Automatic annotation (TrEMBL), chain B:
Component of the F(0) channel, it forms part of the peripheral stalk, linking F(1) to F(0). InterPro entries: ATP_synth_B-like_membr_sf, ATP_synth_b/b'su_bac/chlpt, ATP_synth_F0_bsu_bac, ATP_synthase_B_chain. The chain crosses the membrane at residues 20-38. The gene is atpF. HAMAP family: ATP_synth_b_bprime (MF_01398). This is ATP synthase subunit b. It is a single-pass membrane protein. PANTHER family: ATP SYNTHASE SUBUNIT B, ATP SYNTHASE SUBUNIT B', CHLOROPLASTIC. It is found in: Cell membrane; Endomembrane system. It comes from Allobacillus salarius. Its main location: membrane. The keyword Transport applies. F-type ATPases have 2 components, F(1) - the catalytic core - and F(0) - the membrane proton channel. F(1) has five subunits: alpha(3), beta(3), gamma(1), delta(1), epsilon(1). F(0) has three main subunits: a(1), b(2) and c(10-14). The alpha and beta chains form an alternating ring which encloses part of the gamma chain. F(1) is attached to F(0) by a central stalk formed by the gamma and epsilon chains, while a peripheral stalk is formed by the delta and b chains. One of its GO terms (molecular function) is proton-transporting ATPase activity, rotational mechanism.
Length: 242, 173
């Protein structure tokens, strides 16, 4: 059956027992990064004061992320997070899109998919983001201010604040993973239906197209939510009014 | 079927290898993309912002300058109009004065010429009268001499005397 495909796991690199790789993920990470890099570099080639074509689009994206940043924190503090937000937005959006167009199963293993449809990757991004919020929290407010934030407004909330950090990390990563993975599962099922016969093809083509369109929407929304929440968590750590 | 897929998806669990790859790749991507794309892009946008701000300032300055110049020009125009009016008025007045003077001079001239003419006429008349008088005198002398000449002829003299005598004789009777 179509859902029986596994993953190309490569276990125990250098004989280290916990160092396992999903080669599909590794490939998709590199493909996504390459595409993002190429788009960004093409978009910022031949920059002009009077923008045209692709530069307009890139500037629109920059303005969009800038809007996100300045809606959550002071722009003077938030300016340094603009490249992070832009890169996250592009990386997650492109990653989400890659699984919509097609999926490639080779030799029983699923090779081409969204990199964001794997919890290892989304959680890595989430942990990285939360770690960065802590880093910038200490850097901008100082160690004392950073620690003090855990005990305000009342010290009683300290345990909750600790839990909140883990909950934030987990929800940030799992939300993205869940949305994209569920989308891919449903897409796989629909394509399986279409492949099952003439009747299945006729019945399945409209839902498949509709679901692909909806996944496009989800891809954009999830990328936006991820970046937005990144900025919100960041502002909790670096802003004074919280 | 779906259960199986979910189990397959979840069964891989968290792969530390993937996580490390993802983290490293993302950091490298972030560094490269920031250097090659975002920084230049942001710089251009910032530069444009400054450019636009300075252009707006300049436009405002130019606008004020233009307004100032326009006011100046208006004032100048007003002054010029006043000057022109003044000049026209002056010219009119001068012309009127000149006209009056000319008329006065002409009248005087006319009066003088008339007086002269009158004097001349008088002179001419006097001259004519004088000439006439002398001519009358000479004529009367000529007439008298003619008459006398006539008397001097004998027969005439006689006849004249006789006539005269006759007349005298008739009167006496």
């Amino acid at each position: 059956m179509i859902l029986d495909h596994g993953a190309p796991i490569y276990e125990d690199l250098f004989g280290i027992s916990w160092l396992d790789f999903n080669l599909s993920n590794v490939m998709m990470i590199i493909v996504t990064s390459a595409i993002v890099f190429i788009i960004a570099v093409i978009g910022s080639r031949k920059l002009q004061r009077k923008p045209s074509g692709f530069q307009n689009f890139m500037e629109w994206i920059v303005d969009f992320v800038r809007g996100m940043v300045s809606s959550t924190m002071d722009w003077r503090t938030g300016k340094q997070f603009l490249p992070l937000g832009l890169t996250l937005l592009f990386y997650i959006f492109i990653g989400n899109l890659l699984g919509i167009m097609f999926m490639v199963v080779y030799d029983g293993d699923l090779w081409w998919k969204s990199p964001t449809a794997d919890p290892s990757i989304t959680l890595t991004l989430a942990v990285m983001v939360v770690a960065l919020t802590h880093y910038y929290g200490v850097k901008i407010k100082g160690g004392k201010g950073y620690v003090k934030d855990f005990f305000t407004p009342v010290p009683l909330l300290f345990p909750l604040k600790i839990i909140e950090e883990f909950a934030n990390t987990l929800t940030l990563g799992m939300r993205l993973y869940g949305n994209i993975f569920a989308g891919e599962v449903l897409l796989t099922l629909l394509i399986g239906l279409m492949a099952s016969g003439t009747l299945g093809f006729v019945g399945g083509i409209v839902p498949t197209l509709a679901w692909q369109g909806f996944k496009l929407f989800i891809a954009a929304i999830q990328a936006f939510i991820f970046v937005m929440l990144t900025m919100v968590y960041m502002s909790h750590k670096v802003s004074d009014d919280h | 079927m779906l259960d199986q897929a979910l189990i397959i998806g979840a069964s891989n669990g968290l792969l530390f290898g993937d996580m490390i790859i993802q983290l490293l790749t993302f950091i490298i991507l972030l560094a490269l993309i920031t250097k090659f794309a975002w920084k230049p892009l942001m710089n251009v946008m910032q530069e444009r912002e400054q450019h636009i701000a300075s252009e707006i300032d300049q436009a405002e300055q130019s606008n004020q300058e233009a307004k100032r110049l326009m006011n100046e020009a208006n004032d100048e125009l007003k002054n010029t109009r006043q000057n022109a009016q003044q000049i026209i008025d002056d010219a009119n007045e001068t012309a009127k004065n000149q006209q009056a003077e000319l008329i006065k001079a002409a009248k005087e001239e006319a009066a003088r010429i008339k007086e002269n003419a009158r004097l001349e006429i008088e002179q001419e008349r006097d001259k004519a009268i004088q000439a006439l008088q002398t001519q009358v005198g000479s004529l009367s002398v000529q007439i008298a001499s003619k008459v006398i000449e006539k008397e001097l002829s004998e027969t005439e003299q006689e006849k004249l005397i006789n006539d005269y005598l006759d007349k005298v004789g008739e009167d006496n009777e």
